[in-house]
Design a protein that fits this description.
With 208 residues, this protein is of the alpha+beta class. The protein has two domains: 131 residues, Ribosomal Protein S5, domain 2; 67 residues, Alpha-Beta Plaits. A five-stranded antiparallel beta sheet has the order 2-3-6-4-5, with helices on both faces. Strands 9-10-8-11 form a four-stranded antiparallel beta sheet, with helices on one face.
Amino acid sequence: MSSRYLIPAVSRHRVEESIKRSRFIATLAHVQCPEEARAFVAEIKEEFPDATHNCWAFAAGSPGETAHVGLSDDGEPHGTAGKPMLNALLHSGVGEIAAVVTRYFGGVKLGTGGLVRAYSGLVSLGLESLPTKEKVELSLVQAVIPYTFVTLFKRMLPDFEAEVAEESFEVDASFLVRLPSEHVRAFEKELLDMTKGEALFSPSQEHP
């Protein structure tokens, strides 16, 4: 799993389109777990209780990850709504995302192919204008080093996008460091090389 990826930068994002007199409303949301996704779906169903369908899909992990996904056709023919919506989300390059497409039937049937195009198209339309931001998975590590290396230690921090969260100076200098998870191994190697193996390095049990 990547430790750095795009997520929605807003809690809710909405687009709307009419297709053969049916009104389609796509609402996208940032969700970090299946529970948040289902709460979002319930919220939209409450907002549009008179809709013909509220079809939904979510992918609550990193982009393309299928461990935390869900979908529903909500009464549309099997495979014509939830699955194409989920496929659009999984191929979007955006993680931690859910979508509900609300449909008000306009009297003209779209056929199975038309439904697939409509539901996937509405999600894609929403994704095109969705504001995103980068999410970086962080780790906390503990570094204990002799005082002679403190200056060099602080100079190396920017190279790893690292920052000191806490520090204490007793027999040795002790630092609690927050940095992107993807840099932890390289940071440890650099630290041990710099101190000629004198540094003590360990993951922290505290939350980053």
